[in-house]
Request: fold
Amino acid sequence: MSKELIQIFDTTLRDGEQVPGCKLNTQQKVIIATQLDRLGVDIIEAGFPASSPGDFQAVKKVSNIVKNAIVCGLTRAVEKDIEVAYEALSKARRPRIHTGIGTSDSHIKYKFNSSRKNILERTHRAVSYAKSYVEDIEFYAEDAGRTDNDYLAQVCEAAIKAGATVLNIPDTTGYCLPAEYGAKIKYLKEHVKGIDKVVLSCHCHNDLGLATANAIEGILHGARQIECTVNGIGERAGNTALEEVVMILKQHPNLELDTQIKTKELFATSQLVAHHMGMLTQPNKAIVGANAFAHSSGIHQDGVIKNRETYEIMNPKDVGVTNSAIVLTARSGRAALAYKAKNIGYEMTKIQLDDVYSNFLKFADRHKEIMDSDIHQIIETSNVYNEIISA
Ligand code: KIV
Ligand code: ZN
Reply:
């Protein structure tokens, strides 16, 4: 049976760029957009054109160069924003306007000093206005995570009536539990008239570390688009990480869901974004962190050397990582030392290995990590060096 495809909406250049101190210039945005297109994302949200002349230029340039993906520009539910977004997207082969408004009682009261009725009217007006410019309109109900489901359903219906093609249900504050977010999507699928004509989209923030879990729960309950960023970067604790949702679907074929992402490009994309953002990924970051495929304890190393699948649930090559690293530390065993030594040209008998290993342990106690160059030194200073090289 063929798998159903989930659309990957990348917002690295918009929500991702909201990381404090990580401003990208237009050229950097073009470089990243080119790589995102190569990676195979379905939609690139290139920026918020009305927010600054720089963002306008960046969306315009990205629209010019992207060959495959839909290019999207964010707006508020404000006519001027929509006009500016349309202008910035005018050269895109496949333009999308992403407009919306806050729908939780907190947003309605404190941000807009308004009423639920007025927000419904503004939803309809903004989507209709955007629709007069382009066909593909995504509507976001900001703070949908904390919006009452019944009212959210009314907002969604108003957006559909006005011509929205995609409905984005953001957990803007990263508050929802996975079951709660999944139930929200299910509720909308069951209660919104016309919902089958549109795509429901998950946009989850990571304030409680649940962004990826929430997005997956959303698609398990009927959403068909995930909004995410490379390395999970973004405002505050960030967004759903693109590489995580993509690999979750790939590694769980029983879900019968997949994406069009060329997973072998994931690591290179992560490195490119980290470099231009000036924001290194944490070593233990899932999929793309330096330690994601590193094994340091003796028991794990022994298992991985015998068969990688003992401690690796995915092949590092599938995400573009060429070496699954055996990292030598004071916790490593003889199997790992023999494996690393062999890689750099030393074959040892069991007795020779015992001798070199005792030398290794003394060295390892004084160092956090042992490099290939250190292994040469450890072998050279062992009692059995001459035997090893003359074998
Ligand atoms: O988190 C959010 O609600 C957003 C919207 C602007 C889509 O980023
Ligand atoms: Zn967001």
Summary: The chain has a mean pLDDT of 95.
